[in-house]
Amino acid sequence: GTPPLVIAIDGPAASGKSSTAQWVAQLLDVRHVDSGAFYRAITFLAVASGAPADLWTEASVLEQANRITWRLTARSVLPLVDGMEQDEALRGTTVTRNVSRVAAMPAVREWVNSQVRSAGSAVDVVVDGRDIGTAVFPKAQLKVFLVADTWERARRRLIQRLSRRPNDSEIAEEVEALVARDAQDATQSAPARDAITIDTTTVTQEEQVERIVALGRATRERLRR
Ligand code: CDP
Ligand code: CDP
């Protein structure tokens, strides 16, 4: 039969990838794969090892990788650490501070990519990350690249974190943190050549979700023929 559908959603930090991907997946009734969650899971174990971050090596980090598995839920492909869901710890500041360092390790990237590819070869998926349409699924049937102004991305990140409207000086501070992280990141998030770029700066999340869902439906139709 036809290979599973892969929709790749890439973009820089706080561009809206993971919440958009989750919503799109739900409307198309396929699974969401958050590739960042795999980077966070392996970083979580490196932190838990107790060794200081500057002593982490590819080998010491990857030694723990067999403690991470994934399972299919109705809506997603969920990474598990020692068989358990660790959603909150994975989003925490310690993991966030250290994840770029771990994601810069080529062998770690290979490991995450193989996890994500195995999920995407089993079921239809919407996958979000930094390099999904380029390195992980270069043949994804639909590739979307989300962008938004740095100020707007900082504002959204703070609303998410604080559950209130941030003031301008808070946003300015977050802009610096975002710019630093974008620079640190192993993948500089260049769009794939066949990606459709959507600037979400002045678009509501609902609108961008609708656009991607429409593209996803059209892609499905095309594949059926
Ligand atoms: O995964 P990534 O870091 O790219 O972003 P996210 O955590 O999915 O999205 C950051 C926040 O921006 C979420 O709270 C979204 O609801 C919000 N947002 C958006 O994604 N798109 C808009 N047009 C407006 C808000
Ligand atoms: O939401 P945000 O983009 O800040 O992060 P995330 O999607 O939760 O991913 C966490 C980190 O993992 C990113 O900051 C990248 O350093 C790394 N990552 C990556 O290198 N490649 C991916 N496909 C996904 C995440």
Automatic annotation (TrEMBL):
- Residue spans crossing the bilayer: none
Superkingdom of the source species = Bacteria
> Domain Cytidylate kinase spans what residues?
7-214
Where is the protein localized?
Cytoplasm
Residues binding ATP, per UniProt:
G11, P12, A13, A14, S15, G16, K17, S18, S19
Task: Relate the assembly described in the record.
Answer: Monomer.
Q: Which family does it belong to?
A: Belongs to the cytidylate kinase family. Type 1 subfamily.
Function, as annotated, reads: Catalyzes the transfer of the enolpyruvyl moiety of phosphoenolpyruvate (PEP) to the 5-hydroxyl of shikimate-3-phosphate (S3P) to produce enolpyruvyl shikimate-3-phosphate and inorganic phosphate.
Question: What is the protein name for this chain?
Answer: Multifunctional fusion protein
According to the record, which residues of the full protein are present here? 440 to 664 of 664
